[in-house]
Each structure stands twice: as structure tokens, then as C-alpha cells.
């Protein structure tokens, strides 16, 4: 298969897992190359996500690396299988690749926990709110790109409504509920929407009040996506330069602990809904 010019985060993740599996087995890239009848450079590209790997080769590598975790291997095999063009691919080349990577991560997760400090969580935003956030960007975004972002954000939210929806927990700091993106009318609609979404059985919204005091981390938005197996958990972090992704065990532990802290200090779902509704009706 020809190399990819820009691999997606999911493709890079598959390669990283194959590299981790090889390292755990104490094997070299030369060993993997001989095993598959490839040169060493192709193995390096495969482990970087630049070159595709077939499901059959994933099984061959797993067997010869002595990986006996059948669920983990099958999850990697599923990642390697060719897929029809996913809906978010229609935005490739029109929006930053990182936005597509977030969408793909959410789509394949079994559960997502989100921590938001300054904005409403992406999967719970209204179109007016998305438009207001996009309009505040620097350097300014064109009207066309803002509308593309609105359309994609709305489509992203189908993971909450599809026949097998993800389980979604949003921890929202009080600050994010009081910053009026788009003005009072847009923000009031956003607050009412949060209340409506919190009524879904697969969605839990919890407010972290100002009274909780100091908080861990730098205050950037984060998402913890639970994979189909624990080895495929992923954290996504927002930054001014675009989304970042990490799956190092120490980092996963760190951000799980941060979300656990938010769980501890937040209002329960009922009190959170009442709190948001009070703000919306103020």
C-alpha cells in the first residue's frame, strides 16, 4: 500500500500500538521486517501510521510478538480494516485535520468524559454558540469556514443520538456558564440546551461551582475517550495551536485524576440542571 501524506490520529495510534507491542516483546524492526517480508523503512513507516497495515499483518505481528490479549488484538485488527469513507472525510481539506481527528476519536469511543472551563463542551453546543465562538477567533475566520465548523459540530453530536450512543459525562465549570459568547440571547439558548441534553439517559451534566476553589491543570478543555479496550483510551486537550492527543499511561492517569476531582466537587446532575436553569432564566 502507498504511504499516506498525512495520517490521521487513529492511523498513528494503530502504528504506535504495533510499536509498543514489538517493544514489549523485545523485538527489533529488523525482526518485524523479516517476518512480513518488508524492508525496515516500511516497518518504521507502518509504526508511524504513514503506511497502512492489513488486518492479516496485524494478526501475524501479534502472534509472533507473543501478545495473547485477544480483545486487544481484535481491536487493532478492527482499526486496520478498510472502511467506507466516513462522513467527516467530506470536510478534509476544508477544515483543520485536528477537528476531524476529534470527531473520529469520539465516533469510535465507548464513553467520553469532558472537562470544560471556559466554553460549553463541544458535543453540547448550539449552532448559535458555535458561531459565536468561531467569530471570536484570532486571526479572524472567514464566514465560510465558520459555517463549515458549525455544520461539522452539529454532525459530531450524532454520537449522542445514534442507535448505540456513547455514554457522555460533561463537567462544566461555572465560569463557562457565565461567559456570554454571542450575547445574552445566544447564551440563554445555550443554557437551556444544556438542560435539555442533560435529560438524555446517556448524558450527564455536572456543574463545578466557583466555590470549589482552585482546580488542577491549566484550565484547558479536555476529553477522555474510553476505547473498546483499556489500552486504547485517549485524552484530547485543547490549545491555541489546535488539539493535542496523548495516550501515555502516566498522562491517562493524570487526566483521569483531574476528571475524578471534578466529579467529586461538582453538583449532582439534578442540582446542576437546576443551577443552569436558574442562570438561563435570570
TrEMBL record:
A Pfam family matched by this chain, by name? DUF5753
Question: Could you tell me which SUPFAM superfamilies the record lists for this protein?
Answer: lambda repressor-like DNA-binding domains
Q: List UniProt keywords, sorted A-Z.
A: DNA-binding
The segment(s) forming the HTH cro/C1-type domain are 18-73
- Write down the Gene3D superfamilies for this protein, in alphabetical order: lambda repressor-like DNA-binding domains (1.10.260.40)
Q: Which InterPro entries match?
A: Cro/C1-type_HTH, DUF5753, Lambda_DNA-bd_dom_sf
Q: Which domain of life is it from?
A: Bacteria
Which GO terms label this protein's molecular function in UniProt? Answer: DNA binding
This one is known as: DNA-binding protein
Amino acid at each position: 500500500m502507498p504511504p499516506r501524506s498525512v495520517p490521521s490520529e487513529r492511523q498513528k495510534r494503530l502504528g504506535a500500538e504495533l510499536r509498543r507491542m514489538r517493544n514489549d516483546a523485545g523485538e527489533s524492526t529488523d525482526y518485524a521486517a523479516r517476518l512480513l517480508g518488508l524492508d525496515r523503512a516500511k516497518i518504521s513507516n507502518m509504526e508511524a501510521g504513514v503506511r497502512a497495515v492489513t488486518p492479516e499483518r496485524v494478526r501475524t505481528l501479534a502472534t509472533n510478538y507473543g501478545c495473547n490479549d485477544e480483545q486487544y488484538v481484535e481491536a487493532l485488527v478492527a482499526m486496520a480494516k478498510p472502511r467506507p469513507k466516513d462522513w467527516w472525510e467530506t470536510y478534509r481539506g476544508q477544515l483543520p485535520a485536528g477537528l476531524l481527528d476529534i470527531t473520529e476519536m469520539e465516533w469510535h469511543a465507548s464513553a467520553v468524559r469532558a472537562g470544560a472551563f471556559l466554553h460549553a463542551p463541544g458535543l453540547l453546543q448550539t449552532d448559535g454558540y458555535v458561531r459565536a465562538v468561531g467569530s471570536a477567533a484570532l486571526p479572524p475566520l472567514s464566514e465560510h469556514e465558520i459555517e463549515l465548523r458549525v455544520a461539522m459540530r452539529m454532525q459530531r453530536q450524532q454520537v449522542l443520538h445514534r442507535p448505540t450512543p456513547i455514554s457522555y459525562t460533561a463537567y462544566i465549570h461555572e465560569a463557562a456558564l457565565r461567559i456570554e459568547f454571542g450575547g445574552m440571547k445566544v447564551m440563554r439558548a445555550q443554557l437551556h440546551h444544556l438542560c435539555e441534553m442533560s435529560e438524555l439517559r446517556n448524558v450527564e451534566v455536572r456543574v463545578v461551582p466557583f466555590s470549589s476553589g482552585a482546580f488542577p491543570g491549566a484550565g484547558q478543555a479536555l476529553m477522555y475517550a474510553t476505547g473498546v479496550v483499556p489500552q486504547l483510551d485517549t485524552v484530547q486537550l485543547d490549545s491555541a495551536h489546535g488539539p493535542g492527543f496523548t495516550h501515555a499511561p502516566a498522562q491517562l492517569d493524570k487526566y483521569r485524576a483531574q476528571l475524578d476531582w471534578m466529579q467529586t466537587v461538582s453538583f449532582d446532575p439534578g442540582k446542576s440542571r437546576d443551577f443552569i436553569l436558574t442562570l438561563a432564566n435570570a
